[in-house]
Specification:
GO terms for molecular function: DNA binding. This protein is α/β, with parallel strands linked by helices. 48% of the residues lie in helices and 19% in strands.
Length: 323
Amino acid sequence: MSARPQYPTPATFDRNVSDVVLIVDDVPDNLAVLHDALDESGYTVLVATSGEAALQRASQALPDIVLLDAMMPGMDGFEVAKRLKATALTAHIPIIFMTGLTETEHLVAALEAGGVDYVTKPIKPKEVLARMGVHMQGARQARQTRNALDAFGYASITVRASDGKLMWQTPLARELLMNYYGTAAPETPAIVVDWLRRHLKEAEQQIEPPRLTTDKGSRRLTFRLHQQTGDDDWLIVMREVSDSAVIESLGLAFKLTARESEVLYWVVKGKINRDIADILGSSPATVKKHLERIFAKLGVETRTAAASMAMQRLRQLQPQFEG
């Protein structure tokens, strides 16, 4: 390599201008040829000369595609690919293997490790660019979709249907999954995997399946199957809705305390005293005392009458509310 290229840092990337490519090869001459060809074609090019460096650069920069040498000393390309695909942060990145091994078992190993394609050595830059173009189009569309969802405040995840692995997630999605299910990538909550697999046939026919909903107190998390982003990968959009505004409305409408408002909310939802006590972390006796004060403030004698009055007022204030 005649001069050491000045590789950009992740902070300088503008993905609206160019896509980011990570080349992994322990031979400097191979890096130089590909770097120059890709740079001239408008790509932002990163390099790594070992498997360990490749994993570090990939996790830091999140390239749009990886060109990966299969045979390297130490950690080889097959192991690098497996680790990239096993990590939620990098699992969505397409990998094209570069190999001088043309035996069928080696090519199969490359694909089984997570590669989407391969090119044989000696490397021909035009062939590499053509193969990249095929896989970059799908990756670019998936990225644009995810960016649009993020911009509007939606949490989203990508799940591989065959093994249920969580391949990608937004920061908000990570928080929600941990909060509702106590899970972290690459684990996908079992209820989400089951829901996805039950409705795959509908989704493949472009029929939107029923949404999945999980309640947690006055909050609920919904999942909507958005689209297929790969052969077996599905983009799922998550949204959390809170009825805290509904509870506050009850308090203002009937001059209730915060806890009385919560109790009345769950009465409207059809919960019995024991269930309300479990939800609020109190005792059925305490809930009963709150209800007695609620009945007095509303001028009613039964929970049915209280629920009916509260529902009527809520529909006036928030027509979209569903009891």
